[in-house]
Design a protein that fits this description.
Elements: H1 4-11, H2 16-25, H3 37-42, H4 48-54, H5 57-73, E1 75-79, H6 87-90, E2 98-103, E3 112-117, H7 123-138, E4 142-145, H8 151-162, E5 165-168, H9 182-191, E6 193-196, H10 208-219, E7 223-226, H11 233-243
Parallel strand pairs: 3-4, 3-7, 4-5, 5-6
Antiparallel strand pairs: 1-2, 2-6
Helix pairs in contact: 7-8, 8-9, 10-11
């Protein structure tokens, strides 16, 4: 059963570092639901606005509504204590406390390889992404990418021709971004999995994508970067891979 405390902390956007601190203090994270604002501030280093949101009845109601929604939409929430949590991802620094998954959750525990790159690739870049993605997927390796335009999209499509793929989103699972990949996202959920650490309707905020990228690399045994610019998210993913 999902730890509601972790879901609540995730909803109010407490940093992964603070969530990790809470997990290290309490044997059962749900114990945090019973403590007061003083402990939250002094021991967990919560800011005043985080404390206010955490103790808010409205936020608790939002969590209950979301739990109803995930059941209706066929989404599963996996927390870091679950046996279904990807073992490789758990090893990274400040691993996400919760994952929203739509599709075949078992692919998260299989051998994965990430293919990411430019949103405006060349024909050559697209052909390389297609070749590697299809070949690896045909060998039973799950291809991981970020559902972005360009190389990521090509990687997903080619993987589906040969096997399975995982799309890690920088938005909520019920707010697919980019919109033109909605049909692709549906197909991925049928043959592989959609994954996000963000609440169901989270918009694609700019700050979400570096966090998404650490999950892409964290799930994967390796990362192939195709035609990425020096400041691109694809290279951020590669840097995470080197650190992890």
């Amino acid at each position: 059963m999902i730890k509601k405390s972790l879901l609540l902390l995730n909803h109010i956007k407490v940093s992964p570092q603070k969530i990790q601190r809470a997990i290290s203090i309490f044997a059962d994270p749900d114990e945090i639901l019973k403590i007061g604002s003083k402990f939250l501030k002094e021991k967990l280093l919560f800011k005043d606005y985080e404390i206010e949101k955490f103790l808010s009845t409205k936020k608790s109601q939002e969590i209950e509504k979301e739990l109803e929604m995930v059941e209706k939409e066929g989404v599963e929430i996996i927390d870091i204590f679950s046996q279904d949590y990807p073992p490789l991802l758990k090893e990274i620094t400040f691993a996400p406390a919760v994952l929203y998954v739509k599709g075949k959750k078992e692919v998260l525990r299989q051998i994965c390889f990430a293919i990411v790159g430019s949103r405006i690739p060349t024909i050559y870049g697209l052909s390389m992404a297609e070749r590697f993605s299809f070949s690896l997927a045909s060998l039973g390796i799950v291809i991981v990418a970020g559902l972005a335009r360009g190389i990521d999209t090509q990687a997903h499509r080619s993987a589906l021709k040969g096997g399975k793929t995982i799309a890690v989103l920088g938005s909520g699972l019920l707010n697919i971004y980019p919109k033109e990949n909605s049909k692709l996202a549906y197909k991925i959920s049928e043959e592989g999995a959609l994954v996000s650490e963000f609440p169901l309707f989270e918009p694609p905020l700019r700050e979400n994508f570096p966090r998404r990228n650490r999950i892409i690399s964290g799930l994967s045994k390796g990362v192939l970067v195709v035609e990425a610019s020096t400041k691109s998210g694809a290279l951020i993913t590669a840097r995470y891979a080197c650190e992890q």
